[in-house]
Design brief:
The chain is α/β, with parallel strands linked by helices and 306 residues long. The chain has 11 helices and 11 strands.
Length: 306
């Protein structure tokens, strides 16, 4: 027979046990290569978010496909326990498709965390050391991470200079750069941090990059120097997006947790690897950012498709 003390002990132990398992799981989907630097940045944000509280347990989950649309649509199907981290490709692909193929509907999302902005797109090759030489090459092939991605948008700037050039689609930028390193495509477009192992191994040369800033420690190879002025603004911005179907209180709680984690030193160091500028926006500012990004990238795509 249980003594009164044992009964009280077991009662409070059971309550504690129930509470310890009451943490709610939130999946942050990554729509591209799960081994990329930006996926690792999401992991760093998750680590910090999980240390800072015990109401939610954040997890990363890779869900590639359809240039990000597979992951984005999954968020709408599971609005209260799933969000998606993506680059500016989140806005670009729907504009590229123009209703011809099923894509995610930008009206149904809102940013739960605006992470950073300004990562340049880097053009690399193991066949060329000069952008000018590459532009002159007949039947040039350019590896990108799929139709409607930001790398596709950047590659189109080169296609304008070389009408015989062909854009070759890969599952992600790392696959495209690996193909370029093996000589299977002439050029690939990627992010510096993901390209660095192949650059360090002398399997790839940087021949150009987008953005207005000269990259620290690198030669000034901005594409604007080669007459591609539109490339100055073609840099990647990053955010985590939630469905508008997410409960408002939960949205605000998660936004606050992730915003705090986004300021962690390890996260900031990860952004620095890709020359990104970290952002700290409240919910209202984030919604304005979303509206501005949507308009900018739609205008860029429409300009190219004319």
């Amino acid at each position: 027979m249980l003594t009164k003390f044992k009964f009280i002990f077991l009662f409070f132990f059971s309550i504690f046990s129930l509470n310890s398992y009451a943490t709610e799981s939130i999946n942050i989907l990554w729509a591209f290569n799960i081994g990329s630097n930006q996926a690792n940045t999401i992991r760093l944000i998750i680590d910090e978010a999980n240390k800072s509280q015990n109401k939610y347990e954040f997890r990363i989950d890779g869900k590639p496909g359809a240039g990000g649309t597979t992951a984005a649509n999954f968020v709408n199907e599971n609005p209260n326990n799933t969000v998606v981290g993506m680059s500016s490709s989140f806005f670009i692909r729907p504009a590229f498709e123009g209703g011809k193929n099923p894509v995610h509907n930008l009206d149904t999302y809102r940013p739960i965390l605006v992470q950073s902005e300004g990562s340049p797109l880097v053009f690399v090759s193991n066949k060329f050391t000069s952008f000018k030489d590459a532009v002159k090459q007949p039947n040039l092939t350019i590896g990108v991470s799929g139709i409607g991605s930001i790398s596709h948008l950047a590659a189109n700037e080169l296609v304008k200079k070389n009408s015989t050039a062909t854009v070759v689609n890969f599952k992600n930028m790392i696959d495209a750069s690996t193909a370029a390193g093996g000589g299977h495509v002439d050029i690939a477009v990627g992010f510096y941090a993901d390209l660095k192992p192949l650059l360090d191994a002398n399997r790839l040369n940087i021949i150009g990059y987008t953005g207005k800033k000269v990259l620290p420690g690198l030669t000034d190879l901005r594409l604007s120097n080669f007459g591609i002025s539109n490339a100055d603004n073609l840099t990647a911005n990053y955010a985590v997006f939630a469905s508008k179907g997410m409960d408002q209180k939960k949205f605000e709680e998660i936004s606050a947790i992730l915003s705090k984690a986004n300021k962690n030193k390890l996260v900031l160091d990860s952004y620095a690897i890709e020359f990104l500028q970290p952002l700290s926006l409240n919910i209202a500012e984030s919604m304005q950012w979303y509206s501005n990004e949507r308009k900018y990238w739609t205008d860029q795509v429409q300009f190219i498709l004319k």
